[in-house]
Fold this sequence. Notes:
By secondary structure, the protein is of the alpha/beta class. The chain has helices at about 10-20, 30-40, 80-85, 105-110, 150-160, 175-185, 190-195, 195-200, 205-225, 235-245, 245-260, 270-275, 285-295, 300-315, 320-330; strands spanning about 1-5, 25-30, 45, 50-55, 60, 70, 95, 115-120, 125-130, 130-135, 140-145, 165-170.
Amino acid sequence: MHIAVVGAGAIGSVVAAYLHKAGENVTLIGRPDQLAAIEKNGLKINGIRGEEVFHIPVKTKMDEEYPLVIFATKTQDVERAYQDNRDFLENGLVLTTENGVQADNILSGHIEKEKVISSIVMFGATYINPGEVTFNFEGNWIVGKPYMTNDMLIHDIAAILNKAFEVVVSDDIIGMKWLKLFINFNNCLPALIGKSMQETFADMDFCTLSIKILKEGVDIVQKAGIQLTSLPNFPVDRIYGLASMPEPQAAGIMNKTLTTLSQEPVYGSILQSIIRKKKSEIEFINGEVYMLAKQTGTQAPLNHKIVDLVNQVEQSGEFFTIEQVKKEFNL
């Protein structure tokens, strides 16, 4: 199967590289600076699987139809990526990898719902420079149809992806995506201070803050009647447990978990966008809960403030100090 991977950032580069290594016919769609770097020096991936340079076809736009197109942009870039490549997206399947729960809805506004495959990426990567990415840690790649019942085609796609990653087929991909949203909830805090996940959550006050925003988010989702579904190796009770246990105990678990994510610094998707001077996906993570609260007639003041502060960092290009953040949240 000829596969196009749209987005040459962290996840798109890792996906393209290792599917290519597994023998698949892969074309990577990236920006002009990414194309120039990869054509000149190859795609450099280092990290959990070692260091390697991949020589992959790369283009700035699709110029033919592909049976499978993997969207590996940020959610806020999905619409633009579709518009840039719309002439060649009529007949193939599209697979989303974005965080949050809106990427499938955006694409299904243009593409027949039966052609949309949703997925959740549980492995992690960091974008260093155009054509250079660190693969931080392994994890499942969960796929499923968001609008239709899974069929044999899903299993065929899963078998292809499984050549390079550990793939799981889910019959409740939407419930899993809501759970994954809460796993991504912590990405907002490193984005405020410009530090890695490990550095940020070495501070117990930030661990406590992460629990407070999680509790608020879980409460909003439960009031809205949304059911979370367990992920492979990540049961839903882990989130519900953190949200219900005493804050000092939950903060201690957060500290232990997020300071040992990877030997290399992990910056989180929101901070990575800010570093690259791009609009982040904060509206589709913590902002998703804030909007859900508005729709259900409730409030999410902590997550609302998180969104506002991240927006300030995006607009000013200046990070808050640790002390400023603590003062904002009375820590």
